[in-house]
Amino acid sequence: MLRLNTRDPGFDKAFRRLVRDRRESDENVARDVQIILDDVRNRGDAALAELTLKYDGHALSDDADWRISAEACREAFDALEPGLRAALELAAQRIRTYHEAQRPADRDQVDETGVRLGAVWRAVDAAGLYVPGGRAAYPSSLLMNAIPAKVAGVGRLVVVTPTPKGQVNPLVLAAAHLAGVDEVWRIGGAQAVAALAYGTARIRPVDVITGPGNAWVAEAKRQLYGVVGIDMVAGPSEILVIADGRNNPEWIAADLLSQAEHDPAAQSILITDDPLFADNVADQVGVELALLPTARTATESWNSHGVIIEVASLDEAPALANALAAEHVELAVEDPEPLFRAIRHAGSVFLGRHTPEAIGDYLAGPNHVLPTGRRARFASGLSVLDFMKRTSFIQMDEAAMRAIGPAAIALAEAEGLPAHARSVELRLGI
Amino acid sequence: MLRLNTRDPGFDKAFRRLVRDRRESDENVARDVQIILDDVRNRGDAALAELTLKYDGHALSDDADWRISAEACREAFDALEPGLRAALELAAQRIRTYHEAQRPADRDQVDETGVRLGAVWRAVDAAGLYVPGGRAAYPSSLLMNAIPAKVAGVGRLVVVTPTPKGQVNPLVLAAAHLAGVDEVWRIGGAQAVAALAYGTARIRPVDVITGPGNAWVAEAKRQLYGVVGIDMVAGPSEILVIADGRNNPEWIAADLLSQAEHDPAAQSILITDDPLFADNVADQVGVELALLPTARTATESWNSHGVIIEVASLDEAPALANALAAEHVELAVEDPEPLFRAIRHAGSVFLGRHTPEAIGDYLAGPNHVLPTGRRARFASGLSVLDFMKRTSFIQMDEAAMRAIGPAAIALAEAEGLPAHARSVELRLGI
């Protein structure tokens, strides 16, 4: 864990280093991924079967090897322990309600020159959702990706998920049932992303691909950006907690660790104006780590990437937070509003002492797919808009053309595009 | 020009080939671009100066070589011929008005469990706009990129544009003045995109990069996607005109040619239910080409990529249009509403006989930066949203935590994330 103090002479340099540290895998898989994408594009299902046997140890022969049926998903849902089923249902309902309010409105108006202008939003026809296999197969993640797509009105929602050695994750199947997923294919890695983008004999292509994955999946999405739409490239998760000294250090330590337990490359940062509180949180992290079943990951993350920054006053915090542009920002103070107003760049903000980040991971309602690695400077969390697109429209009559046509002719001529000018002139009888 | 008829036995196959034909450069510049990006990242302004001399024949030594001053832009604007200046001002005003209505609303509500939920939209701090040099340097394109950024509230708007052999384009400077651009740098190519993304000693980095460019510029943006935000990768332009036989063939021919004159790889497609009208349009294209100063480009585009599709009834047109998902779609019929309602995938739609696509290129109001190459299936035209990002927020009190906290604990335990559960339990006094 790194301890910084804004009063120290070396602070600016150390903080700049922290801001620049991306913690992302620099594993260069671009070439290998390109070979896989080309292979699936050219050979389709045969390539999928070979790659799935090679990487997942799973043989794709009959239909049940390829695809998990809707019945199997429903059975997994019905078999859930009732408390867990109710929790999953509450999460789905709250996520749905929050995202329903994101549906954009169409527009259609006639302006003073008589030109009718507007835009209509429509869902994409089909969306593909990558769900990792193994430990990182989170049902919450499936809900957070699938529900915005359903709310958008996507007609066909396809999940791809690797089933290493044939193993399926019943929680993920249950979530797929609850979210109304239409197809679940037992493929993963770059080859699954390729199948979604290009289509194969078995799998029809989709228009948008979202969902978390390893470096190969992320690179496949990046290479296929433009062939399909994708969500933002995601790096390791991070939390920034801004806290005064009147917090319970146990709570704040748990919040920092809830990020750290995700991934050894995750980052937890505390900014506080109270040095004694900082010490207490650091101690408490040690105490909680000793009891934590996920201590191995969390310790590695905290030791390598954890940071405590002491500030003279919390007024200094927003500038630091804006430079860090963190995925999650907690404002653990009595009145978080002034700080909140000053924070320009953050994926999601958790206001006050009673809002741990974990509540946002599961069921507060907003999406937990958020920009990481300072991308909150320009990117937003996943939303219904990622599964929709806008078509603008224009309608003119002769009067409207008389009003604005001549200016279009002047501009077309200035740009050296005479056929543009001609198409307007003809309608003006010139 | 290719002539198809939906009644012909070979139609489906020919149409599928048309849909798949991407017309995009398969020039593989990925490796060369990567070398340039690394060079600018490592050596900054020195690399920029070398590359600019090499590719643009322009020496970057004193400040005036690097940058075009605000005064020079204002002078270019003042020197415009008055009719052209008025046309540019009308375009800017109409584009601004249309885009102002795109500004998204924040949300902030408290739900029935006492959880406060919402989202705030904020502009990115800085945006970079690529403006090609030479023939394709269109002032309209500068306005279409810069005005949405200004409407979004972007604080710093930076233009990069190559000035081959030192030559500047006064129309572009005038548009930069009118749009309120803050900085104009005389650099281009992948090196300019790298400078915007990484920053150099002279040029501070930006958060979002938009604007058209050649294959090198497009590849640089693609590789830097994630370091910065970018607009959609753009390919050659295209128009689909759906017209009945009661149109003036001269008008429709001019519309088809207004697309063709952009680029030899541009594509113009006519769908009509009237074979005689189809013949007349084809003839008229020939007549107009004979007079067109841009005939060389337009002829190459029309001969290589032009298509006329005869349908038995215009009711067949929407399905074809949705498969093509064209950038521009004209509906040249008396009542375009039924066709418009059936078209799901299009960048922009031009309704009725009096709405040539060229009017949308310049000053109707909607953006002319639109998804090409079937990307209208999942992508939208450039908008104010491309220069903004959304931060979600959550605020809970003790009662709200009692209402939804236990479900979060159940989900965290099911996912094997005990610190997540702990951060909630502590707040519930468990």
From TrEMBL, chains A, B:
Q: Which CDD domains match?
A: Histidinol_dh
For this UniProt record, the keywords arranged alphabetically read as follows: Amino-acid biosynthesis, Histidine biosynthesis, Metal-binding, NAD, Oxidoreductase, Zinc
Q: Where does Zn(2+) bind?
A: 259, 262, 361, 420
Q: Which pathway does the UniProt entry assign to this protein?
A: Amino-acid biosynthesis; L-histidine biosynthesis; L-histidine from 5-phospho-alpha-D-ribose 1-diphosphate: step 9/9
- Kindly give the InterPro entries that the UniProt entry links to this protein: Ald_DH/histidinol_DH, Histidinol_DH_CS, Histidinol_DH_monofunct, Hstdl_DH
Lineage top rank: taxon: Bacteria
Q: Name one Pfam family in it.
A: Histidinol_dh
Q: What is its EC number?
A: 1.1.1.23
* Reactions catalysed, as given in the entry: L-histidinol + 2 NAD(+) + H2O = L-histidine + 2 NADH + 3 H(+)
Q: Which GO terms describe its molecular function?
A: histidinol dehydrogenase activity; NAD binding; zinc ion binding
Known function: Catalyzes the sequential NAD-dependent oxidations of L-histidinol to L-histidinaldehyde and then to L-histidine.
Q: What is the official name of this protein in its record?
A: Histidinol dehydrogenase
